[in-house]
Structures are given as structure tokens and as C-alpha cells.
Prior knowledge:
Blueprint: H1 2-28, H2 32-38, H3 45-55, H4 64-71, E1 79-80, E2 83-84, H5 96-110, H6 116-126
Amino acid sequence: MALRSMLTVIRDLQNQLAELEKIILELSETIAEVQLLESIPGVGTKLATSIAAEIGDASQFRHPKQLVAYAGLDPSVFSSGKFVATQNRITKRGSKRLRRAVYLAVTCGLRGDLNLRIREYYDKKKK
């Protein structure tokens, strides 16, 4: 009996999730930013919608570097006195969800060589 009730709850949650995804997809068709993000090779509707939702109103950022910092992708500079670090890591201070969505967009673009510009940049940095 407990198993049946748990299965019922899981089915109900799956139906609610499917309905929410349908509503999100319908709304995303009306948002210009989502359409623009979808034009990037490797970025689908769900990923474009999540990036647009995390950024919100892009006009709040006066400079692209502000958006990079908001995503937590800006490099941290570590230096003390005469010591200067040879490797700089990202700060990770920004939006965790936006950072993850951008990471997924890049990996999708790299997979199958969908986005040649990202592939060239990746190969250059890897060397």
C-alpha cells in the first residue's frame, strides 16, 4: 500500500513537471532573448530558456564584464608582494545556475563539433 501511494505521488509529480515544461516552452517562444540564444549552435530551447531566466533583464549590466562577474566566470587574481600566481582560477562568486548553464552550452557546442568557434578556442587554450 505504501509503495502504491509513493508511485501515485511520483506519477503526479511527473505529470506536473511535464505540464510546467510545456508552459515554459510556450512562453519561451515569445521571448526574443531565448530566440537569440537558440541561434548559437549547441544551445537548445531548454538551455536558452534557463540562461535567459538567470540573466533576467540584460540592460542591468552596463558592460559585458559585469555579466561575466555575475556568472562568476571572472578570473581571480592572486598576488602578494612580489609573488604573482601563474594560474588564475574563476571566482565562482556569481550565479551557480547561470555558470552551470553556460558550461552546458559550451560542452554541447564542443560535442560533435557543433560550434566551430568554440572548438577552435578550446583547442587553442588546451595547447
